[in-house]
Amino acid sequence: MKTLGKVFMGIVYAVLYAPLLVMVVFSFNGAKSTTTMNGFSFRWYANLFADRAMRGILANTLLVSVCAAVLATVLGVIAAYGIYRIRSKPLKSAVNTVTNIPLVNPDIITGVSLMLLFTFFGGLVLKRTAVLGFATLLIAHITFDTPYVILNVLPRLYGSDASLYEAAMDLGCTKTRAFWRVVFPGIVPGIFSGFIMAFTLSLDDFIISYYTNGHYNILATSLYTAVKKPISPEYYALYSLIFITIMLLLTAVNVLEIRSEKKKLK
User: Fold this and answer.
1) Do residues 57 and 30 both lie within one domain?
2) The 3-state secondary structure of the chain, one letter per residue
3) pTM for the complete prediction?
4) Is the pLDDT reported for residue 63 higher than 90?
5) Rounded average pLDDT over 63-68
6) 46 in a domain, yes or no?
7) How confident is the prediction for the chain on average, in pLDDT?
8) Is 141 found in the same domain as 36?
9) How far apart are CA 40 and CA 81, in angstroms?
10) Is residue 47 part of a domain?
11) Do 159 and 132 share a domain, yes or no?
12) Are 183 and 57 spatial neighbours (Cβ–Cβ below 8 Å)?
């Protein structure tokens, strides 16, 4: 039974990671072929950094993703702490339900509804028809990133010792100082996990971005246009770099969590 379980897990991981491995391998292919290797080469990585248009799209994507992740993390931590401090169980349950709605709501509904909201607001208040761009895209990404941050931070708050916070208050700390000295250090791994998830989701999103970006081009929408013709291996190189970066960030998150658990045990 154990052997069967290991075989099954091996098949699952092969299905999950084989496409990524193929992409990374062919990003070093010397030719455009996607069926045979024609020698090891950094050609596509060199072309990637030499392409001004691609660098501009990458810069746009990173700007949106980093800004959205930072703002969503700040809002998510504040919201999570607010939910944690709610004493009324019916109210807390209602707030949690509202928080979870964006997670289960189809992306196309979120994207279309945000597009309609932005165009309605632009026409009614700003008296403009072309309002979609960087600002609307950023707001849209913050909207769907924030609930994920809340879900990463809340378990850390519930797992913390409330008596430590009360003891800090008894010893003369203000509420703000008690939060930063006692509560915040314990939820740092959750905050970092929420930030990484928000950044990854923002980097990956296509549907909501497609409806809210206007003429502000990012990687997801750029790739949608690129796949209508033979795709350039430069995209293999680019997404290989992104994949490796995400893997390193997730490794850092896991290391922080392991160290946090060891400190708790001590």
Assistant:
1) no
2) CHHHHHHHHHHHHHHHHHHHHHHHHHCCECCCCCCCCCCECCHHHHHHHHCHHHHHHHHHHHHHHHHHHHHHHHHHHHHHHHHHHCCCHHHHHHHHHHHHHHHHCCHHHHHHHHHHHHHHHHHHHHCCCCCCCHHHHHHHHHHHHHHHHHHHHHHHHHHCCHHHHHHHHHCCCCHHHHHHHHHHHHHHHHHHHHHHHHHHHHHHCCHHHHHHCCCCCCHHHHHHHHCCCCCCCHHHHHHHHHHHHHHHHHHHHHHHHHHHHHHHHC
3) 0.81
4) yes
5) 94
6) no
7) 83
8) no
9) 51
10) no
11) yes
12) no
At residue 22, does pLDDT exceed 90?
no
Range of the domain at 29: 1-41
Structure tokens at 30: 């010397």
Q: Answer yes or no: is 11 within a domain.
A: yes
* Residue at 36 is within a domain: yes
Residue 130 CA to residue 150 CA, distance in Å, equals 33
For the chain, the domain total comes to 2
Residue with tokens 């004493």: 87
